[in-house]
Write a structure and sequence with these properties.
The complex is a heterodimer of chains A (249) and B (330). In chain A, 51% of the residues are buried. The two termini of chain A are 35 Å apart. With 249 residues, chain A is an alpha/beta fold. Chain A has a single domain (2-245), classed as Rossmann fold (3-Layer(aba) Sandwich). In chain A, the strands form 2 sheets. In chain A, strands 6-7-8-3-9-10 form a 6-stranded mixed sheet, with helices on both faces. Chain A has helices at residues 42-49, 74-80, 96-106, 112-125, 141-153, 171-186, 198-204, 222-227, 232-245, and strands spanning 4-13, 16-26, 31-35, 57-62, 65-66, 81-84, 159-163, 190-194, 207-212, 215-220. Chain A contains 9 helices and 10 strands. The longest helix of chain A is centred in the C-terminal third of the chain and has 16 residues, at 171-186. Chain B has 330 residues and is mostly helical. Chain B contains 13 helices and no strands. Chain B has helices spanning 3-7, 27-50, 66-77, 82-139, 142-156, 160-170, 173-179, 191-217, 221-229, 234-249, 251-264, 276-287, 290-318. In chain B, helix 5 (142-156) crosses helix 8, helix 6 (160-170) runs antiparallel to helix 8 (191-217) and helix 9 runs antiparallel to helix 10 (234-249). Chain B is elongated and about 85 Å long. The chains are: A alpha/beta (249), B mainly alpha (330). At the A-B interface, helix 2, helix 3 and helix 5 of A face helix 1, helix 9 and helix 10 of B. The site of magnesium ion (MG) has 4 residues of chain A, from helix 1. Chain A: Belongs to the ABC transporter superfamily. Chain A: InterPro entries: AAA+_ATPase, ABC_ATPase_HisP-typ, ABC_transporter-like_ATP-bd, ABC_transporter-like_CS, MetN_ABC_transporter-like, P-loop_NTPase. Chain A: Keywords: Amino-acid transport, ATP-binding, Cell membrane, Membrane, Nucleotide-binding, Transport.
């Protein structure tokens, strides 16, 4: 059974329909990369999965269970679905370690010491154990984002959502974050990633979706979609992306 | 990326002013404030612990003024020629001035205690009320937002003195207060004090909730989202993520409120609370030397205000977090 399934999901802000019937599914361990122009609804699509945004029609299933129903336990859903933000959103008043322990202590009810141990293990995983006592303002963008990933991983999620995790980063810092994401993918984490890092998509993605105007215009394995896009709009978008980024890394 | 810049809170639009906040950091002032507080504490301990059987007006000052007064009399009676006599007269007047000020000190010390208690208790109790009020304003649904708004505007829109009068004369709160255990004995010697505390607490809660509200609004909205995204309930996310940041942003406004409350607490004299201003007025009425005694009382207020500012600077420094407001650590 698929881990995540969208079934004709629609969402509007006022009169503007942002998601216009999204359907797809991904299996446990899949890495789905979503690409698409700005405003095409990529963020909205991710936010529907953990109910930061409510869908207007259609259903999203997590592990076979509808999660867009009124009686879904939203807090529990969010515990099960980790999210990594474009602009990090680290808790500014807490150290790197404190960012990771908050959910452990307040959501999972870990005792203080155990939360600390677990959080250190997560920071270790993203290569930041030595920055445990730094505040967000004292970290580089790449470090912040890795703390953001550790914070989400600490909740032991079944699915991770990444919303352009590297697009706020200086180019030289992107690599560290992508490396952590690659490791995660190799460990078998199920990941739904909005990213325009085509190198990452090529090497880590099981499937790439091209979203435009609130619809999945084209979907397929990265090699096929990048080399021979079937849809005209996909081709145009990829061309612009390549010229903008100056090719692959 | 944008978080550092976006988090910077503006000066809250509701600030009543920023008097004294700057002064609190100069070492020179500690040289004056140190002895002032040392004397004040010794005075309180002496008057209420060591010699409680005397009433305040009977209390002797620690600094005898007899020689000063005598010197003044001598100068006046010296019979010097005209221009010199004028100068001597003027000197003698200065000595009388100081003498009266010094004689007023024991009573003003007692009044300062009441002023400090009124201020500290009201600001802290006000904070306890202001936090839920401001959270209701910012994050509450209609049912919470509008009542909170109404209460805040009602209190901020009417004079504090009128509020005290309503509590004291209008509602006759003293009757009920007298029933409360502890009132009338040493802890709360005076029912009027309790009424004043209630009035100041409510008033300060309204102002503080405005400071905190604008501080909460300056917390980046992504913070709450991130809190919710790890599974925190809205209340928990506000409590553990938004409030710790918002309350830090509110410290400068809060310091102003503290400074204002010190001065506004003098309004309690209108409902017979024997705080600093009341004592000064009492002495003035008895001696007709209003200028002298009000000058000394003003010095007391200035000392209290600067001390409060110094304490708040210290607190602000202690809770400062890199990148999150605070002084010099941005
Ligand atoms: N909170 C919101 N209120 C109103 N419109 C929104 C909101 N969030 C997004 N939108 C609109 O929805 C559309 C899709 O936004 P988004 O999902 O953020 O796109 P993307 O992430 O692909 O750039 C955009 O046109 C945007 O203006
Ligand atoms: Mg987006």
């Amino acid at each position: 059974m698929s881990l995540l399934r969208f079934e004709d999901v629609r969402q509007s802000y006022g009169a503007e329909e942002v998601l216009r019937g999204i359907s797809f599914e991904m299996d446990r361990g899949d890495v789905e990369v979503v690409i698409g122009p700005s405003g095409s609804g990529k963020s909205t699509m991710l936010r529907c999965v953990n109910r930061l945004t409510e869908v207007d029609a259609g259903t999203i299933y997590l592990d076979g269970e509808a999660i867009t129903t009124p009686d879904t336990d939203v807090n529990d859903l969010r515990r099960r679905v980790g999210m990594v933000f474009q602009d990090f959103n680290l808790f500014a008043h807490r150290t790197a370690l404190g960012n990771v322990t908050l959910g452990l202590e307040e959501v999972l009810d870990y005792p203080r010491e155990e939360a600390r141990t677990e959080a250190m293990a997560q920071l270790e995983r993203v290569g930041l154990a030595d920055q445990a006592d730094s505040y967000p303002a004292e970290l580089s963008g790449g470090q912040k984002q890795r703390v953001g990933i550790a914070r989400a991983l600490a909740m032991d999620p079944e699915l991770m959502l990444f919303d352009e995790p590297t697009s706020a980063l200086d180019p030289e810092l992107i690599g560290d974050v992508l490396a952590v994401m690659r490791d995660l993918a190799e460990e078998g984490m199920t990941m739904l990633c909005v990213t325009h890092e085509m190198g990452f998509a090529r090497s880590a993605a099981s499937t790439v979706s091209f979203l435009d105007g609130g619809q999945v215009v084209e979907r397929g394995p990265p090699a096929r979609l990048f080399e021979s896009p079937a849809n005209e709009r996909t081709g145009e978008f990829l061309e612009r992306l390549t010229s903008l980024h100056g090719g692959e890394q | 990326m944008s978080t550092e810049a976006a988090d910077e809170p503006g000066e809250p639009a509701t600030a009543r002013g920023s008097v004294g906040v700057e002064l609190g950091r100069r070492p020179l002032f500690y040289a004056v404030l140190g002895p002032f507080w040392a004397w004040l504490v010794v005075r309180w301990v002496h008057d209420w612990v060591l010699a409680p059987e005397l009433n305040v007006t009977a209390r002797e000052t620690f600094f005898p003024t007899a020689s000063l007064v005598a010197a003044g009399t001598t100068l006046r009676g010296a019979g010097a020629p005209a221009p010199v006599a004028g100068l001597l007269d003027w000197l003698a007047g200065g000595m009388d001035f100081v003498a009266l000020g010094v004689e007023a000190l024991p009573q003003l010390a007692a009044g300062a205690w009441a002023t400090i208690v009124l201020t500290v208790v009201s600001i802290l109790a006000g904070l306890v009320l202001a936090v839920p009020l401001s959270v209701a304003r910012v994050y509450g649904g209609r049912a919470a937002r509008y009542p909170a708004l109404a209460v805040t505007e009602l209190i901020r829109g009417t004079p504090l003195l009128a509020q005290l009068f309503v509590l004291y004369f209008g509602l006759g709160l003293t009757q009920y207060v007298r029933e409360v255990p502890g009132v009338g004995v040493a802890v709360l010697p005076d029912t009027a004090v309790v009424v004043a505390l209630i009035g100041f607490t409510i008033n300060s809660a309204a102002y503080q909730s405005e400071y905190i509200r604008s501080a909460l609004l300056s917390v980046d909205s992504g913070q709450l989202t991130a809190g919710r995204a790890i599974g925190l309930s809205k209340v928990d996310a506000i409590r553990h993520v938004v409030l710790p940041q918002g309350l830090r942003f509110a410290i400068p406004g809060w310091s102003n409120e503290l400074v204002y409350l010190i001065k506004y607490s003098s309004l309690a004299s209108f409902i017979t609370v024997r705080e600093l201003f009341f004592r000064a007025e009492e002495i003035g009425n008895a001696t007709y030397r209003f200028v002298e005694v009000y000058t000394v009382a003003a010095l007391f207020y200035i000392a209290l205000v600067i001390s409060a500012s110094a304490v708040m600077s210290y607190v602000e420094g202690r809770v400062a977090i890199p990148g999150l407001g605070g002084k010099g650590r941005r």
